Automatic annotation (TrEMBL):
Signal peptide: 1-30
Name used for this protein in its record: Cytochrome c, mono-and diheme variants
InterPro entries, A to Z: Cyt_c-like_dom, Cyt_c-like_dom_sf, Cyt_c7-like, Multihaem_cyt_sf
Gene3D superfamilies reported for this sequence: Cytochrome c-like domain (1.10.760.10), Cytochrome C3 (3.90.10.10)
Record organism: Flexibacter flexilis DSM 6793
A Pfam family reported for this protein in Swiss-Prot or TrEMBL: Cytochrome_C7
Keywords: Heme, Iron, Membrane, Metal-binding, Signal, Transmembrane, Transmembrane helix
Keyword Membrane: yes
Length: 411
């Protein structure tokens, strides 16, 4: 009976480890070096090149499909991407021809590492099959699509972690079974054949040790912890973009405009005191000044070329709540009297806008629990304040006017 049990145990262990190594190899496959390189290239491209280039379409610069074939070597194209102006002025005839055609310098990319540029080149060599861009200015949809990718990865890791957890539990149960059975048989050795006796009385050698359930369980456990940690990190970072500071198509500086020149926020963000959305300024607002200021600057010329081509500047959206949440600017800035800086940080000191707050539900709720409603001078609140004062000595918080009700923030 015991030798059967022993064999059964071996089969189960083999099965368990077969499945775990399968799980491991799927993950390894998903990170094959080439695919990773292209994926990295896509990210670098989206962050640095997309505003001026598409694969199959002329944007500001040429369409990049087969661009690598137009250059003699990878080193040559890498050097051009890094120092275009130098290459053109250095007398490279092909580059000069490009410049004559597009009449604009591509900016230097010496801030990128060589392996980042190589990744972009890999992406250009292996572009998506079809034209990927739907030409809408719905930056929101684009952001959502970008978020979907990491979410998928998170789910895969989660499933793997769950799988390994189940395997680990199987191991623990097996371990317990073995010790219980061994104890039972030890106290009850009559009627067993030689084989079985040997199994029971075995001592712990190296072979036995590495084959032992305890050892395998320990390995399984460490493995499980590693996977679980990876899953945890992924899942908890999905959708949170605190610190996100994408490179923008024009080097617009809040530090210069809102800081040094003290232009009011709502001069550009015209909706911020009267609408749900603060809104991003159109080119026309910039041209109020830049029709005459810095007209020779290459950055400002991008404004003129946008007007000529009649396309909006494709600012990369920084803050983006998921669609399921409702947030209204005027309610907070005008009615609530909350300063921009409370939520957005010191924008007037930022060269490049960065997401200051987490924008999670917990963040909204915490502030609603702590913040006193600005009720003076607002007749709408007089009754509410009087009612609240009857019930409590505490000042009236956002919480008390329904700021924690699900339906206020979720449709
Ligand atoms: C501000 C606009 C702009 C940005 C950003 C930009 N480019 Fe360009 N790119 C151009 C222009 C314009 C040209 C045409 C050459 C010229 O006039 O300098 C060009 C040319 C090129 C060429 C040569 C194409 C050919 O047909 O041989 C490559 C390759 C290229 N860019 C890659 C990149 C990569 C990679 C990035 C991002 C790391 C990038 N560019 C970012 C504007 C831009
Ligand atoms: C001269 C026009 C101008 C002024 C003044 C200005 N902004 Fe902006 N703001 C922009 C432009 C253009 C963008 C989009 C490009 C960027 O993110 O840098 C932007 C982006 C932002 C964003 C990020 C939007 C997103 O994509 O999520 C915030 C937040 C912001 N501004 C807040 C402020 C605050 C607060 C002030 C006042 C202290 C201010 N801005 C003043 C033009 C302006
Ligand atoms: C109320 C006037 C005003 C508005 C509106 C305005 N700017 Fe400016 N901008 C300035 C001033 C002033 C400077 C600094 C000029 C200087 O350094 O001599 C400047 C400088 C710049 C520069 C730096 C140029 C360089 O090469 O040094 C950029 C880029 C720029 N603005 C982009 C924008 C954009 C994009 C918008 C629209 C979202 C905008 N500006 C709206 C007044 C304005
Ligand atoms: C109570 C917090 C809070 C305050 C105060 C606040 N914002 Fe925002 N802001 C947000 C949130 C949250 C988003 C993201 C909204 C979304 O994705 O729907 C946002 C987005 C923006 C955007 C991107 C465009 C948009 O409307 O989605 C701009 C620009 C902006 N804020 C400017 C401002 C300015 C200027 C002020 C001050 C006058 C201000 N904000 C005050 C929380 C705040
Ligand atoms: C810095 C503090 C702060 C943060 C952060 C904040 N709020 Fe508020 N919120 C307020 C204040 C103050 C009011 C009260 C305004 C008023 O008097 O009507 C308010 C009111 C509201 C209301 C109306 C509640 C009611 O019962 O009338 C909604 C909805 C709301 N906030 C949504 C959000 C969402 C969604 C977020 C997060 C994305 C958020 N808020 C983040 C301070 C904040
Ligand atoms: C003050 C505004 C506010 C209130 C009140 C609020 N939520 Fe949210 N909720 C948000 C915001 C903003 C998000 C999106 C940010 C995030 O995912 O963390 C969100 C996200 C969610 C999500 C999606 C979570 C995810 O990870 O995708 C669920 C589910 C949810 N809320 C349920 C509720 C329920 C149930 C209540 C009532 C008990 C409630 N919320 C009250 C602002 C609010």
């Amino acid at each position: 009976m015991c030798s059967h049990y022993n064999r059964f145990k071996t089969y189960l262990l083999a099965l368990v480890f077969g499945v775990s190594s399968l799980a491991l190899s799927t993950q390894a496959y998903a990170q094959a070096p080439d695919a990773a390189q292209i994926e990295k290239g896509t990210a670098v491209f989206d962050a640095n090149c997309k505003q001026c280039h598409a694969i199959d379409e002329v944007v500001v610069g040429p369409a990049l499909r087969d661009a690598t074939k137009r250059w003699p070597s990878e080193a040559a194209i890498l050097n051009f991407i890094k120092y275009p102006q130098k290459t053109i002025e250095g007398g490279n005839a092909y580059a000069k021809g490009l410049y004559d055609k597009y009449k604009q310098f591509m900016p230097n990319h010496d801030f990128l590492k060589d392996d980042e540029i190589k990744a972009v080149i890999a992406y250009i060599k292996n572009p998506p099959a079809k034209v990927e861009e739907k030409k809408t200015d719905a930056a929101g949809a684009e952001g959502a699509a970008k978020e979907a990718a990491p979410a998928d990865n998170g789910v895969i890791t989660y499933v793997l972690a769950a799988l390994v957890l189940v395997l680990f539990l199987v191991l623990v149960v097996l371990g317990l079974l073995v010790s219980v059975l061994t104890k039972y048989l030890n106290s009850n050795t009559e009627g067993l054949d030689e084989d079985d006796k040997e199994v029971i009385s075995q001592t712990l050698g190296f072979d036995k040790f590495f084959g032992s359930v305890a050892f395998k369980a320990a390995v399984g456990f460490v493995f499980f912890i590693m996977i679980a940690k990876a899953g945890y990190d992924k899942v908890y970072s999905v959708g949170i973009h605190q610190g996100y500071a994408p490179r923008q198509p024009i080097a617009f500086s809040h530090k210069l405009h809102a800081g040094m020149y003290e232009i009011n926020c709502n001069y550009c963000h015209t909706g911020v005191y009267k609408a749900k959305s603060a809104s991003i300024p159109s080119v026309n607002i910039c041209l109020n000044c830049h029709n005459s200021i810095k007209t020779e600057s290459p950055e400002i010329k991008k404004l003129y070329s946008a007007v000529e081509k009649n396309r909006p500047i494709e600012w990369v959206r920084v803050h983006n709540l998921p669609d399921l949440a409702y947030f209204n600017h005027s309610q907070h800035t005008k009615v609530g009297g909350v300063e921009c800086q409370t939520c957005h940080g010191n924008i007037q000191d930022m060269e490049v806008v960065q997401q200051h707050s987490s924008l999670t539900m917990g963040w909204c709720i915490n502030c609603h629990r702590e913040t006193v409603v600005k009720a003076e001078g607002n007749a709408y609140y007089d009754k509410l304040v009087a009612m609240h004062a009857k019930k409590s000595k505490e000042p009236m918080k956002v919480e008390n006017i329904g700021g924690l009700e699900c339906s206020k923030c979720h449709y």
